[in-house]
Amino acid sequence: MRLTFIGADHEVTGSAHFLQACGKNILIDYGMEQGLNVFENADLPVNISDIDYVLVTHAHIDHTGMIPKLYVNGFRGTVIATKATCELAQIMLLDSAHIQEFEAEWRNRKNKRAGKPLYIPAYTSDDVSAVMRHFKSVDYNETIKLVDGINIRFTDVGHLLGSASIQVEITENELKKVICFSGDIGNFNQPLIKDPEYTTKADYVVMEATYGDRLHEESDDFVGKLTEIIQTTFDAGGNVVIPSFAVGRAQELLYFIRMIKEENLVKGYDDFKVYIDSPLAVEATQIFSRNQYECYDEEAMELINRGINPISFPGLKTAVTSDQSVAINHDKSPKVIISASGMCDAGRIRHHLKHNLWRSECSVVFVGYQAHGTLGRALLEGAEEVQVFGEDISVCAKIYKLEGLSGHADKNGLLKWIGCFTPKPEHVFVVHGEDTSCQNFTATLKELGHKADAPYSGSIFDLSTGEWIYEAEPVVIKNDKTKKAKVNSVFERLFAAGQRLLTVISHNKGGTNKDLAKFTDQINSLCDKWDR
By the 8 A CB rule, do 49 and 22 touch? Predict the structure, then answer.
């Protein structure tokens, strides 16, 4: 029983943990790094083709974004998640692939003129479609026998539609251990989805600490504050631009704006338009509706039972095509524009910022976490000028940060979650938080009597003995661009194919001499063709 820490260690994005037990190799999440990354992620300790399972806590890209890359490099195992997570992951990964394909096309036009080699995206839409065939959905609170000696169970953790903490029960050599991966722990009283459910038994816990060193600001009147911003901005003749995560946050905003419209809180603009400019958000909203009976909370279900769609209202308009998106900024009437990405590091939101940031009558409202190194973080920290599509844009619009929509539990919420384990776990591993957050939350846990650590990527723990096999030192990234170029190289894909071939050869041990001879001849024929 061995746990290796791969990603989101002293960082918020790129979640990945690697579990080896009962002869199986299991990944828990395999996310994409976003924003500024300070520490180098460890490499997986086995060939990609040797990974048997990927267990997914939820669909956000920082937890799923590199799963198609696993497929590119030879993974052919099974990906397990809740039904809603499987549906959301498909549209989010396709969106990620489209962004990468667009970037590759743009880069390669420049590279061709400069005589530089082709830029290869991490994966394509075809790769996403292929890996989605390996996804298998499970129900909440259902105990699943993964293999002999390993049972798994998904519990609703209230972070996103379909999100879960994952309990893994391992029995090996007559020794039984239970490890719980928290995933991202949800906040309380969020619109639409249920509050977190609690896991109560585990020997080991791997838990997130995004807000491990701070509390959410009190925000009893989110609707009132948003109403005030809309009213003031519209009176000045401007637009309200809201960078939003397309999945989860966008639907919550629709929930609150429906309330604002229903109660006629914005005076003089009864029919004001609200644009959802994100094909991904449009698809995600449909998925929310399909999963309402499994995932919605009592308040949302009460509306549905009265025949009211909680996330729809008159004046709601969607932009799916590029032409529809461009047309939004030709509409001179005051309006609300909700667009992705939530951290402003990609997507259509950048076009709306380009058209609205320089206008003093406009407002930009942030309703979610902004990672270091993102355009959103720069705006929140008071940047007076930013670059958008290579153009310097003066920041004259009013910048707001509204609390109350965080999908993450704050410090008190995290302590409540870990406090439900009885007895206390043997060891708590703190991950998925910025460096200071991980360190401070670990210190808090120790003060409360927990044995806790915040490991760095590459650390290895023996679950059977309760001892560290290796405690890694932090490895600071020196040149992120060089790293990305390496990850996206064609040769890496070829090398991974070779590793997969070795895996396939080992799987054929014990085959008939006739079949093995034929396989050998095919390999040698291929080698003869390409040997140089």
Answer: no
Q: Which of 5, 148, 151 is nearest to 80 (CA)?
A: 151
DSSP conformation letters of 350-404: HHHHHHHTT-TT-EEEE-S---TTSHHHHHHTT-SEEEETTEEEE--SEEEE--S
Q: Judge if 387 and 447 occupy the same domain.
A: no
Closest residue by Cα to residue 92 from 248, 242, 274, 241: 248
Q: Are 422 and 400 in contact (CB under 8 A)?
A: no
Report the share of the chain in percent with pLDDT over 90.
75
What are the b/e assignments for 441-454, b being 16+ CB within 10 Å? bbebbeeeebebbb
Q: Rounded distance, CA 390 to CA 238, Å?
A: 24
Instruction: Fill in the DSSP letter of residue 210.
Output: T
Query: If we measure between CA atoms, which residue out of 385, 351, 349 comes closest to residue 365?
Result: 349
Using CA atoms, how far apart are residues 354 and 356, in angstroms rounded to an integer?
Answer: 6
Name the nearest CA neighbour of 20 among 40, 41, 45, 43: 45
Per-residue pLDDT reduced to its tens digit, 18-77: 999 999 999 999 999 876 778 889 999 999 999 999 999 999 999 999 999 999 999 999
Using one digit for the tens of pLDDT, what is the confidence trace for 192-213? 999 999 999 999 999 999 999 9
pLDDT of residue 406: 82
Distances (CA, A) of 334 to 188, 239, 337: 33, 5, 10
Rounded to an integer, what distance in angstroms lies between the CA atom of residue 22 and that of residue 504?
A: 20
SS3 200: coil
In angstroms, rounded to a whole number, what is the distance separating the alpha carbons of residues 207 and 165?
Answer: 9
383 and 482 co-located in one domain? no
**Mean pLDDT computed over 97-108:** 88
CA-wise closest residue to 205 among 452, 499, 526, 456: 452
Domain match, 389 and 447 both: no
DSSP letter string over 472-489? PPP-B-S-HHHHHHHHT-
Alpha carbon distance 82, 152 (integer Å): 12
Residue 186: give the domain boundaries: 2-215+407-488
pLDDT digits (tens, 9 = 90+) for 346-373: 889 999 999 999 999 999 999 987 878 8
- Considering the chain, what is the average pLDDT of its residues? 92
Outline where 146-246 has alpha helix (H): 222-235
Residues 211, 117, single domain; the answer is yes
Same domain, 116 and 19: yes
Looking at the structure, do residues 455 and 334 belong to the same domain, yes or no?
no
Query: What is the dihedral sign for C-alpha 127, 5, 484, 37?
Result: positive
- Predicted local confidence at residue 219, as pLDDT: 61
Q: Which of 347, 377, 401 is the last residue of a domain?
A: 401
∠ CA(277), CA(64), CA(198), 5° rounding?
Answer: 100
Burial 375-410 (b: 16+ CB within 10 A, else e): bbbbbbeeeeebebeeeebebebbbbebebbbbbbb
